[in-house]
TrEMBL record:
<dbReference type="InterPro" id="IPR052171">
    <property type="entry name" value="NHEJ_LigD"/>
</dbReference>
<dbReference type="InterPro" id="IPR014145">
    <property type="entry name" value="LigD_pol_dom"/>
</dbReference>
<feature type="domain" description="DNA ligase D polymerase">
    <location>
        <begin position="33"/>
        <end position="287"/>
    </location>
</feature>
<dbReference type="Pfam" id="PF21686">
    <property type="entry name" value="LigD_Prim-Pol"/>
</dbReference>
<protein>
    <recommendedName>
        <fullName>DNA ligase D polymerase domain-containing protein</fullName>
    </recommendedName>
</protein>
Length: 301
């Protein structure tokens, strides 16, 4: 029987998946469809999986694409295959079962269900919330600032992290700002959050006219927010290589080099689409690869 329009059955890693609504335009400005996004994730998975495997995932679901309704979902999307692994996660309200993406097939299955944006915490389900293995700092430009200013702040944060024996790796968020990852030996979430907050506060005190650590919108005008709170055990960060669905043009959370951060003079200098990121990984490899290993892991001071 021929496939219905916009539908295709594929086999990935021994699992049969019925991909649907392939013709749906998700990003009107570029004409990127669901088929384009699925193809991107299938190709980028080898670089992406080391940064999300073992971590309970939550998603930004946007079945109709960037122009439609979107929401954050921690529970597995309706229709998630039984073979996709789940982990039990404890919350203040109780416990929940969350998807753990451990394969190309699982990643494609979730994206096929409209879970286009993947977010993960800084700890794995196996190690638990008291074993965070990375520090994350989210640099978010307030009104009147942009990614270029975030890059200048990031360079100073890199120096401070280096002084503390930690190695920072930059990732453009795919939205407006920049993420910094620093791999660490496992430490309790409260300790990691306290360290990140202290680092952000230190830079705010150094540059009060440029940096803010408060979420209050009135305080953020003309400044860069260093969001340290994503180190809390209950919080998540947009995963490296995830597609972002916050505008009519697709964005990707893409690792970049410090040379690229230093030479950024326009926000567009570090803006990447789907094919850009696949091409970069083919040429440069996974720039964030060391974060998933032990070679550059440091200890909190």
């Amino acid at each position: 029987m021929p496939a219905a329009p916009g539908r295709q059955t594929v086999e990935i890693e021994g699992h049969r998946l019925s991909l649907s609504h392939l013709e749906r335009v998700l990003f009107p400005a570029t004409g990127q469809t669901k088929a384009h996004v699925l193809h991107y994730y299938a190709r980028i998975a080898p670089a992406m999986l080391p940064h999300i495997t073992g971590r309970p995932a939550s998603f930004v679901r946007a079945p109709e694409g960037a122009a439609g309704e979107s929401w954050i979902a921690k529970n597995p999307p309706p229709g998630a295959p039984d073979w996709v692994p789940r982990a039990t996660v404890r919350h203040r309200e109780g416990t929940s079962r969350q998807v753990v993406i451990d394969s190309v097939a699982a990643l494609v299955a979730m994206v096929n269900l409209g879970a286009y944006e993947v977010h993960v915490p800084q700890w794995t389900a196996a190690a638990g919330r008291d074993a965070h293995d990375r520090v994350v700092l989210d640099l978010d430009p307030g009104p009147g600032t942009d990614l270029v200013v975030c890059c200048r702040v990031a360079e100073r944060l890199r120096q401070l992290l280096d002084e503390d024996g930690l190695t920072a790796f930059p990732v453009v968020s795919g939205s407006k700002g920049l993420h910094l990852y620093a791999p660490i030996h496992p430490a309790p979430g409260r300790s990691v959050s306290a360290y990140a907050k202290g680092l952000a506060t230190r830079l705010m005190n150094e540059h009060p006219g440029l940096v803010v650590v408060s979420m209050a919108k009135l305080e953020r005008r003309g400044k860069v927010l260093i969001d340290w709170s994503q180190n809390a055990s209950a919080k998540t960060t947009a995963a490296p290589y995830t597609v972002r669905v916050r505008g009519e043009r697709e964005g990707v959370a893409a690792p970049v080099t410090w040379d690229e951060v230093g030479s950024c003079r326009e926000p567009g200098d570090l803006g990447f689409g789907l094919e850009d990121v696949v091409g970069r990984v083919g040429e440069l490899g996974d720039l964030l690869g060391p974060v998933a290993g032990d070679a550059v892991r440091g200890s909190l001071p």
